[in-house]
């Protein structure tokens, strides 16, 4: 099965590239005397002589420029009991380090997360622009591994453990923001009549995220503004007509996932007035899409 590349179809890109399984790292640095961390899946070994590694970071990342300015970083390879850390450091919130056990070994310049499977301390070597990401190359200055642990893996938007690994994967934070019964007039469908007169479409959204930062601060900046999400999602319903509910759901998921705090979203698109020759209450397509 194959499909040519449509640059607007980010869902297909994510879905296919998600078939490449990887580990998960937290890139850490000491910024203004305090630790800062960023979850990354795009880590890779690059060169043995000189010893180089890389990761790709989004050009919209707010934390990476602060890490770059230090000229140093540590790559913490997460162990399979560290799903919580992976989720925590995907959120832009300095209070993420509260309660996190870390140390600064004598031969490392950046924070090392306790319990990591391995750590690789680096000096920033170079940066390479790559589309909407920057490839960051680090020169390795110190490193260590704890082979008694097992790696945390990431595959098709889900955390995994090695088959046969002793430790089980703990459950992800199951926090949700749910929007139900959004509706708007749209002109989607395969029939000409549907394009001309249009009909009402419904939308339910279930956003998966960590709500603890907002609960701690009680500040809207630490969570997703669901009013903005609703407006952006409804703009897809009222926007460019498409033939299929599948396309609508995919587009809505793409819009919702642009907020980096949302780890995954389930989108259900309803078409209660679909032109069917039978009595029915509703037709709906539900999709779940996740980041990275
Ligand atoms: C498992 C996982 C892997 C991720 N991998 C990357 C990655 O390789 N590159 C990246 O830029 N962001 C990645 N992210 C998202 C970042 O951790 C972060 O949320 C995003 O870059 C926003 O960062 P900011 O707060 O600095 O703006 C990943 C998130 C998760 C949960």
How would you explain this protein's 3D organization?
The protein starts with 9 loop residues before the first helix and ends with a strand. The protein has helices at residues 10-17, 64-70, 83-88, 192-197, 212-217, 226-238, 245-256; strands spanning 22-23, 25-31, 34-40, 44-47, 52-58, 72-77, 102-103, 112-113, 118-130, 133-145, 152-155, 158-161, 176-186, 199-208, 264-270, 284-290. It folds into 2 domains: 10-168, Roll (Pnp Oxidase, Chain A); 175-290, GTP cyclohydrolase I, C-terminal domain/NADPH-dependent 7-cyano-7-deazaguanine reductase, N-terminal domain (GTP Cyclohydrolase I, domain 2), CATH 3.30.1130. It is an alpha+beta fold. The mean pLDDT is 90. It contains 7 helices and 16 strands. The longest helix has 13 residues, at 226-238. The structure holds flavin mononucleotide.
Write the layout of secondary structure elements.
Layout lengths: L9 H8 L4 E2 L1 E7 L2 E7 L3 E4 L4 E7 L5 H7 L1 E6 L5 H6 L13 E2 L8 E2 L4 E13 L2 E13 L6 E4 L2 E4 L14 E11 L5 H6 L1 E10 L3 H6 L8 H13 L6 H12 L7 E7 L13 E7 L2
Antiparallel strand pairs: 1-11, 2-3, 2-6, 4-5, 5-10, 6-9, 7-8, 9-10, 11-12, 13-14, 14-15, 15-16
Helix pairs in contact: 6-7
The site of flavin mononucleotide has 20 residues, from β3 and β5.
């Amino acid at each position: 099965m194959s499909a040519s590349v449509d640059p607007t179809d980010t869902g297909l890109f994510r879905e296919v590239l998600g078939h490449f399984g990887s580990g998960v790292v937290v890139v850490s640095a000491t910024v203004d005397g305090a630790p800062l961390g960023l979850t990354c899946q795009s880590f890779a070994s690059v060169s043995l002589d000189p010893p180089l590694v890389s990761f790709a970071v989004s050009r919209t990342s707010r934390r990476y420029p602060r890490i770059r300015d230090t000229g140093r970083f540590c790559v913490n390879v997460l162990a399979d009991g560290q799903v919580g850390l992976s989720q925590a450091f995907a959120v832009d919130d300095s209070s993420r380090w509260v309660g996190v056990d870390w140390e600064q070994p004598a031969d490392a310049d950046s924070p090392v997360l306790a319990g990591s499977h391995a750590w690789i301390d680096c000096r920033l070597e170079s940066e390479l622009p790559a589309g909407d990401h920057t490839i960051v190359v680090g020169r390795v200055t110190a490193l260590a591994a704890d082979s008694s642990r097992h790696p945390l893996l990431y595959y098709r938007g889900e955390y995994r453990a090695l088959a046969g690994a002793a430790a089980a994967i703990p459950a992800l934070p199951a926090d949700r923001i749910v929007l139900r019964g959004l509706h708007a007039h749209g002109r989607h469908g395969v029939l000409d009549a549907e394009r001309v007169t249009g009909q009402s479409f419904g939308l339910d959204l279930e956003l998966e995220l960590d709500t603890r930062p907002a609960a701690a601060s009680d500040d809207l900046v630490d969570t997703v503004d669901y009013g903005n999400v609703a407006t952006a999602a409804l703009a897809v319903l009222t926007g460019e007509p498409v033939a299929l509910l599948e396309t609508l759901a995919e587009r809505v998921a793409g819009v919702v996932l642009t907020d980096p705090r949302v780890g995954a979203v389930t989108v259900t698109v309803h078409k209660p007035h679909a032109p069917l020759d039978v009595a029915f209450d509703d037709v709906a397509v539900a999709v779940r899409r996740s980041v990275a």
